[in-house]
Amino acid sequence: MLSSIEFVRQSLELHLFFARIMKEHSFFLEIGFTQKDSNLILKADTLRMEFDNLLADTISLSNGVVSSSVLQSGEVITPFTLKAEIASAYFTGIDIPTDLTEAEEALMGDELMVVNPMLEQEVFMLNQRAMRLVSALVQFKTRLLSGVISCKIFTSNYPLLIDHILREAKFYYQLIQRLQNREDINLEKEAYEQEVFWNRIMAEHSKFIRGLLDPTENELINTANNFGNEFDKLTKEAIEAMDAAMPIAKVTEDSLKATIEIKKFKQQGTQGLVDCKIKSIIIPLLGDHTLREANHYLRLLKIFKTAKK
Length: 309
Prior knowledge:
The protein is mainly α.
């Protein structure tokens, strides 16, 4: 059973990463609709602001509680997040609360020794609230995906992107649920599941980037395409290792190398988007969003690799 200290720390670290991801999913959906679907724009906007509030409350509980390793990993914010938010707010006219990013920049990590029972209760309630909110977002994304596939709704977001962010929301919900049940994490079992999940996510990021670049950006398109193929292969290998209960150490090593490389690609890409050096229809915040997910996965892979030694 998870200790009180681990429950509090892991819960807050999870929300620092995923609540921001979910609020940005809502933002990406919001800017993809046409004026005809003003009701969907409003629904996405409402969800986005609710996740803003969830993230704000997470930040207020996190100072001196979460691990320095998480804060320094680049999964909470990157050096580009603030600029990407300012540029994306400018392009869309949507008010993105950059004060949350500034508050995250000021967060201090610590190795928590004791947990105040009141803090533990607050985190439990925060988790309950997050589950309700994620559940509402899952329902919205499910309805949207169905509408897009049946040609009842038009959006500038790929059907695969909607399916992709739907899977991420369901994954987030499951992780909160496990924390609420105080489940201990089996790192070996976790490695199989996480590597299958995140290798597929990295492959799809590469394909989205490939498809949103201007057709003249041949070099970047080819690089993105190669990453897509590489992570498709790694996803297949992770599934085969899991199904055959084979050691996953080699897949972890290969995934680590590939994720280090795709992180560099996304870093350069986000910098290029923020500095207006890349021709594309990629909103700058999407570049930063995919970079943070690569940073998150990189931290997990390093944990899995160390655990196997």
